[in-house]
Amino acid sequence: MIARLKVFFANQKIKWFGRFFYYLLILLLLFFMYGFNDASAGAYIYNDF
């Protein structure tokens, strides 16, 4: 059973899809944390530069 899991997770396509969904999840969480505001909405990080 463990050997099958090791072979499954060693597959390059599985690694690529895993990383893709990991970074997609981070991106979506950042969008939801900071909202979908436009640049004039006030909570924009570069307003003071």
Task: Describe how the helices and strands are arranged.
Blueprint: H1 2-10, H2 12-34
Structural class: mainly alpha
Residue ranges: pLDDT <50 for 5 or more in a row?
none
Radius of gyration: 18 Å
The rounded distance between the terminal residues' Cα atoms is 55 Å
Binned strand content: under 5%
Oligomer: single chain
User: Helical percent range?
Assistant: 55-70%
- Mean pLDDT, nearest integer? 79
Along the chain, the helix and strand elements come as HH
What's the story with the biggest beta sheet? none
InterPro entries: DltX
Organism: Neobacillus rhizophilus
Keywords: Membrane, Transmembrane, Transmembrane helix
Protein name: Teichoic acid D-Ala incorporation-associated protein DltX
Concise description?
With 49 residues, the protein is mostly helical. The protein has helices at 2-10, 12-34. The chain is rod-shaped and about 50 Å long.
Q: Overview of this structure, please?
A:
It is a single chain. The chain has 49 residues and is an all-alpha fold. Helices cover 65% and strands 0% of the residues. It is built from 2 helices and no strands. It has helices at 2-10, 12-34. The longest helix has 23 residues, at 12-34. The radius of gyration is 18 Å and the shape is rod-shaped. The protein starts with a helix and ends in a 15-residue tail after the last helix.
